[in-house]
TrEMBL record:
It comes from the Eukaryota. One of its GO terms (cellular component) is membrane. The lineage of its organism: Eukaryota, Viridiplantae, Streptophyta, Embryophyta, Tracheophyta. It is found in: Membrane. Belongs to the multi antimicrobial extrusion (MATE) (TC 2.A.66.1) family. The keyword Transferase does not apply. This is Protein DETOXIFICATION. NCBIfam families: matE (TIGR00797). One of its GO terms (biological process) is xenobiotic detoxification by transmembrane export across the plasma membrane. The chain crosses the membrane at residues 39-65, 85-108, 120-138, 158-175, 187-206, 212-229, 265-287, 299-318, 338-359, 380-400, 406-428, 440-459. The keyword Thylakoid does not apply. It holds the Pfam family MatE.
Amino acid sequence: MESKGTATLAQHFGIEMQVTEFMGKEKLGRRIVDESKKVWEIAAPAILTAVSQFSIGFVTCAFVGRLGDVELAAVSIVQNVIEGFAYGIMLGMGSALETLCGQAVGAGQLNLLGIYMQRSWIITGVTALFLTPFYVFASPILQLLHQDKRMSELAGKFSRWVIPQLFAYAVNFPIQKFLQAQTKVWVMTVLSMATLGFHVLANWVLVTKLGYGLLGAAIAGNISWWLLVLSQTVYVVSGFFPDAWTGFSFAAFKSIAGFVKLSLASAIMLCLELWYYTAVILMVGWLKNREIAVDAISICMNFQLWTLMIALGFNAAISVRVSNEFGAGNPKAAKFSTIITILTSLILGAIFTIVLLATKQEFPKLFTGKQAIIEEASKLGYFMAAIILITSIQLVLHGVAVGAGWQFSVALVNFICYYVLGLPLGGLLGYKFDLGVNGIWTGMLLGCFLETIILVFIVKRANWQKEVFRAEARVRDWGGSPLPQQGSLEHTIND
């Protein structure tokens, strides 16, 4: 009888354990779906916004290309050298808001967002003033870089004409971070796509129909960027954010030093990343038969750029999710979001990698008809596939760093991996061992791989609970009240 009762009891507990295990799996599955939705709500519009704004430059080049080779070269070098340099710095200076606004939203301190944005406008505006001489003296700068004199003079004129766009960047990036932190991004996406459509029409009228040439292209770009900025500004100040925007305030001039420090760290981190790829192209340009090598690597990087837009969407999403959860006092929720976002981005990166490897003989034909360039670009397919896969993880980890406020640490890692290891190793393999572009890309790939491994280690070893206290101190010291302690450190992913 006792044996029978024991068996029945064991059977009962066995069934109960299975039910509990099933319910646990069902709850975990529900959490994964919920977190994925939150990530995609930010990532999808962020991707569309990035593609739309990036395409403004493509449209300009497409219309200018019909004017002549010299005109196209002049505009291209302004976009890639002068504007690219300024764009990276301005975006980096504005990226401090990803940390601050996100943590303020999580803490329920929405009143700080408008002050933070105004503070960032002051910093990015001053930065734009300091960058203006690069636009004014673009022609002698390009000639110092041994560029063609006629092309440099034409580029100098165009560069001076597009100075208004520099100040549009100063307004645009803080607004973007203000909206992203609150996941209010679809309006920004629609405005960016509408601006792109307007830009096509403006170029057609000014460049093609009225024949204003480069001046027409510059005017179209200036109008388009300021149309985007003003429409976003109207959206922000028109009452749609009653808690986050309470009008202009002198409080924006307080704590400027701390803001500048975090903004500079963000700018250095981003610029070290962007300039790494620029340095690789310059190194390839010093090789023998450099025309074919430069064209091939440019084709590869153009393809990579489109896949990069996807990863940048997840970069924005995870920075918002991590900063929100740290601000709300939920370290385990931030960690859970990081895992889900990395896996999602990695799956998409793997898909792009497979597609690239399957079409490595075909994709170069989208950019050129020259067989020598097609063959050279195809050979680089394996390197590019590896870069795409690594970047899908790397940029998510960068987003985690921005959300947590680790910009300075990541900037240091970038410098060591890229400029102490990657580029020197690439130069050694490319020039000394005569491996050419393959050697340079090998060095770049190893630098990216090492940085990703270090970032994984940093994220894995981070004290997420301690980051919550840092977020609380940051919000309190820069204008907020103490965070609401809603059992913050008791939250777990099982709540």
